[in-house]
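ok so heres the complex, two chains, lmk if somethin looks off
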Amino acid sequence: MLTKYDRLLIYFLLFLSFLTFLASAYWTRSFGKETKKLVITDGKTTKEYSLTSGQKRIFSVKGCVVEIERAKVRVRSSSCPKKICVSQGWIRSDGESIVCLPHQVVIKIVGNGKETPFDSLVR
Amino acid sequence: MLSLFLGVGVVLYVAELFYFPPLPIPGAKLGLANIVTLILMGFYRWQDALFNTIVRTIAGAIVTGTFLTPPFFFSLTGALTSFLVMYFVYRKFYGKFSFVGVSLSGSLVHNLSQLLLAILFIGHWGILFQTPFLILIAVPTGAFNGVVANYIIKRLGFLSWQPLET
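and the predicted structre for the whole thing:
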């Protein structure tokens, strides 16, 4: 039923699959090391922070107390009336942002320049 | 006779979609309808097989309600590229390869071309992660179709059909 070359083709394909699997595994390792930045604007000045370091940092920008911990950010407390920025909680992915209007503070996570135009794709 | 094969193809295409449990990898399926293409390639002219492939894809899409939606284009490109490669392999290497080999190369190209289209479509290289699994799934599905086509062509061989004048 199967000729010799059929068998060879099957073995070749299995090998190819294994090879590409190794290649993709190797390729994935470079993922997650991409540089994520945190950009905080307080109306006039813009500052950039690194998000990759695991250190927990708390500092205040105008009235907002910003907390950075393991690649995620939140506004810990704020002196604004409605505390919308606080109730937004942690943000962590590219393009997410916290805005505190009364203090004119914008906290945004910026990836390496690229943002996919889709939120999600369903087929 | 050709229209009979067309009917068989469409029915296989739809029946497979409805009655077989989906394979564990998204986008992978058995491709039973490909058996029809293989048989036609063995018994008729290449135009007949190609025509059957295209019309089967369109008719199958109309039946399943995916006509002119992204899955339809995926399935059409996959069908066309795999047809080209299968015909090439059949013409040049039949004898060395049986229909199993023809079907295997076809299913491999089918999967890979759809992958490339998906990259164009979504615009992200991350889909390449699926490559090893798609190649892996191409082996059993392609081999199964090839074995079935081998058997059918052996059984139908005594009919010694002539290529039909359309």
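quick notes: The interface with chain A takes residues 70-71, 93, 96-98, 100-101, 104-105, 108, 122-124, 128-129, 131-133, 135-136, 138-139, 143, 146-147, 150 of chain B (CB under 8 Å). thats all i got rn
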